[in-house]
Amino acid sequence: MAIRISLVHFLNSAPLGWGFLHGPFQEGFEVIPSAPSVCADQLANGHADIGLIPSVEVQRIPGLAVIPGIAIASLDKVRSLLLIKPKGRPWDGVRSVALDTSSRTTVALTRILLAERMGLAPEFVPHPPDLPRMLGRCDAALLIGDAALQVRMEDYDTIDLVEAWVGWQKKPFVCAVWAGRKGVEYPEGMVATFHAARDWGLRRIPEICAAYARSLNLPADFLRGYLERNIDFDLGAEHLDGLREFHRLAAKHGLTPGFRRCEFMG
User: Fold this and answer.
1) Listing from the earlier edge strand, what are the strands of the sheet with 156-160?
2) Where are the alpha helices (DSSP H) in 10-58?
3) Euclidean distance between CA atoms 97 and 36, whole angstroms
């Protein structure tokens, strides 16, 4: 039976999944393209065996093991996790924030940063990722992923949430990780397969960006710069330090049931 993979359909996930969709790693795997929040649900309810899940969900879903060494992370500005408001209005006047329903990790990060760094406790309103409607309903909006990449930055006041995190914590921010359900019988060498698939996908960034340029109606060079400069696909010691601190803060703010250290495959 094929291992079912729930894969985020955003551009920043494409290098991790391209080999399972279009390359030499298709055999033995069934890929289910999904939004980040849906990936978490599919893994939690057993509809997927492995998911590229929001990093906060590692603390919420019991019985998970993280594939070591791989993440969607950022070391500085990320460009695709944005808190947005109309120009000219002060940030301290924000009383309501529309939250992209595709997101879970960035929703938690937004709540933490607004409370800890800006002293704000606005109303939070879940909303599909439609910026004009979000700003029609609320003072500010959180957008992630491809929808955030399509925002014309010069038209709004924005906060790059990873830039704010790194400026505060001096640690990378981990947006998503591969995780699987403990108790599933995975094929031998599966962790190595996921590493090989990532490396294969990273060598095909020009091909990936050409495909997404058509679907997003954005320049391929802009998308390539985003993948090569803004996104980091490692999960090393510094990344884990940042992830642990994020998990601790999420627990402090009641956004997860508590804090526990990640468990890893292999």
Assistant:
1) 123-127, 96-100, 140-144, 81-86, 156-160
2) 14-22, 36-44
3) 20
**Domain 81-169: which CATH number of 1.20.1250.20, 3.40.190.10, 3.40.50.10490, 3.30.420.10:** 3.40.190.10
Where does the pLDDT of residue 195 fall: very low under 50, low under 70, confident under 90, or very high at 90 and above?
very high
- pLDDT bin (cut points 50, 70, 90) of residue 190 is very high
3-73+173-252: what fold? D-Maltodextrin-Binding Protein; domain 2 (3.40.190)
- CB 250: neighbour CB atoms within 10 A? 23
Q: Do residues 46 and 181 touch, judged by C-beta distance below 8 A?
A: yes
Task: List CB contacts of 168: < 8 A, sequence separation 6 or more.
Answer: 113, 116, 117
- For 53, the token pair is 């899940």
Residues of the chain with CATH 3.40.190.10: 3-73+173-252, 81-169
Alpha helices in 184-236 (DSSP H): 190-202, 205-216, 220-225
- Residue 27 CB coordination number (10 Å): 7
Cα distances (Å, whole numbers) of residue 82 to 43, 78, 146, 181, 196: 26, 9, 11, 31, 31
Is-contact 186 175, C-beta < 8 A?
no
